[in-house]
Every structure is written in structure tokens, then in C-alpha cells.
Amino acid sequence: MLRLVHHRAYVWPVADGGAFPWNKYGLLMDALAERDAAIETHAPDPMPVRWLEAVHDPDYVAEVLEVRVPSAKARRIGFPVTERVAERARLVPGGTWLAARLALAHGFAANGAGGSHHALYNSGAGYCVFNDLAIAANRLIAEGDAARVLIVDCDVHQGDGTASLFAGRPDVATYSIHAEKNFPARKARSTADVELPDGTGDDPYLEALTRSLPPLVDSFRPDLILYQAGVDPHRDDKLGRLALSDDGLARRDCFVAAEALRIGAPLAATVGGGYGVDRMALARRHAATLLTLADAFAPVVAAQVGV
Ligand SMILES: [Zn+2]
């Protein structure tokens, strides 16, 4: 059973189009239905403004919520921040926070959007408005829901915003495994970064992941893992540069889930990146990731309810 946070506003498009695949968030629901997956959906509340301001520059938060983002920042984000985009930008962090709360109660849950890892202190970037991972992690710690949060970012692009927002924080660790030559050109410093050459396929990817993630899990000992589960390392991804197969992504997701299970930490996933003309293919990749993770945690849930 997949506990999934979803809101119809996740699918709202920008007024004048653009390259960002808004409709994949609706198609994700179709792809899950196509798989006949058992799903329990939960609707998020908008993230309270004070929690946005706890991570982002209050002036930038106001620019977004009052729909007056300067054009230079809108260009950096990659689409105009309209009324709908602004409302969505509060719902997505609310969804990641809710998914984490559900994970804390049940072992695993996912937000059907989010993973906005390029958003920085005073600006969005790379299709990210607010950094839902950082906002959720910060709130969970501040409210005592978690003491140590590890953010595992397997999107093909480096989680530069998350890394810079949490630089120097002892209670949050950031891990990013990404294509070295991909966006962003200037990388930030995560707690652990793994840079992969163009064209890296399943076996070398898994070798790098299985070598680098366990030491951080063991040394940091998180009591919650937030997973940016982007599917853009796939070989058919338009913005990828890596060459994972469907099976490679499944092995990646199984390994991340197994690491959480190994130390008894709950895991909340966000959708993350995935780009291409065939939006249904993207949605199916995201659906496969979420179901792989839910399946990995199924025995834990079964044990909790005594079956
Ligand atoms: Zn990406």
C-alpha cells in the first residue's frame, strides 16, 4: 500500500507553457492506477508562511506569494510565477512535510510532487520555487518530530540548493549522487557528493551508490530520511546525461529503501526530476519508483499491524 500525498493543484500549468512537464504529476496518478496499485491519498495543507521564511529570505517569500518575482529570478526558475504557481509553491512543501509525518507513523510515504532541490535562500532556480525538502526538514526538527534528518538526493542534478541551505547544520546531512557535467554548472558542497561521468550505466552507478551511502548513514545515524527520487538518471531522459535502465532505477530505489530499513529510519520520498516529450513514459518511471519503495517497506507495515 502506497501512502501518497497529492493535490489537484500539483498539476496546474503555468499560464504560457514552457518546458516544465506540469502534467506529469496528473499522469503519475494515471500511471499508478494503470498498475492497479493500492493507494491511500492524503491532501496537503499549504505550508505556513513562517516555515517558508524559516528557510528562505522573507523578501523572496513575499515576492512569490505576492506574485511579483523579478524577471531575472523568474528566468532563473525557468517559468513565470503566476498566482497558481505561487499557491502550488506553498502546497508542495506542505506535501513533503505531510509525507514525512506519514512516514514517521507508518515507515514510508511519498509526496506526489516536490524535490525542489535547486531553490536557494533568496531565489528559486532550475524549475524550483521553494525548497520543499529543506522547509520540511527544518520544520520537522524545529517541532521535535525528528532530531537528525538525512536528505538522500539521487536526482541526476546536484541538490545544490539543499546543500547550501543546510551548510554547517549539525542536524541535517545532505547526500547527492549526480552527473558531474550536468546542471548546475557551479556545484555546492553537500555532506557527501558523488560525481559521475556522462553515460554512467547501471552497474557503475550501483557500485558508486552502494559504496558511498552506507558510510554516511552509519556515521550520521538519521532518524528520518527524505529521498529526492528523481528519475532523470534514466538513459532516455532529455536532461539526464547518465544511462540507467528501468532495472537500474529499481535497484537504486531498493538500495535506498534497504539503507533506511537497515537502521530502522522511516523514509519519505519526493518525485524529483524527469524530463522528456513522452510524459506518460516519465509518469510510469515515477510510478515505478514510488511502488518499488512502498513494496520495500511493505513487510515493516505488515509487522506493525501484526499480519
Ligand atoms: Zn533533475
Please summarize what this structure is:
By secondary structure, the protein is α/β, with parallel strands linked by helices.
Count all strands and give the number: 8
Strand pairing plus helix content: what structural class?
alpha/beta
Question: Low-confidence stretches at least 5 residues in length (pLDDT < 50)?
Answer: none
| Strand coverage percent | 5-15%
Terminal Cα separation, in Å?
14 Å
Order of helices and strands: EHEHHHHEHEHEEHEHEH
> What shape does the CA trace take?
globular
Relative helix content: 40-55%
Describe what you observe in this structure.
With 307 residues, the protein is an alpha/beta fold. It is 44% helix and 13% strand. It has 10 helices and 8 strands. It has an 8-stranded parallel beta sheet, sandwiched between helices. Helix 1 (24-34) crosses helix 10 (279-304), helix 5 crosses helix 6 and helix 8 (202-220) packs parallel to helix 9. The protein is globular. The two termini are 14 Å apart. 54% of the residues are buried. The mean pLDDT is 95. The structure holds zinc ion. The site of zinc ion (ZN) has 6 residues, from loops.
Offer a few descriptive terms.
single chain; 307 residues; alpha/beta; eight-stranded parallel sheet; 10 helices; globular; binds zinc ion
Q: How is the secondary structure organized here?
A:
Blueprint (H helix, E strand, L loop, with lengths): L1 E4 L18 H11 L4 E4 L6 H5 L4 H8 L5 H7 L5 H24 L1 E4 L20 H11 L6 E5 L6 H6 L6 E8 L12 E5 L5 H19 L3 E5 L17 H17 L4 E4 L8 H26 L3
Parallel strand pairs: 1-2, 1-3, 3-8, 4-5, 4-7, 5-6, 7-8
Helix pairs in contact: 1-10, 5-6, 8-9, 9-10
Bound molecules: zinc ion.
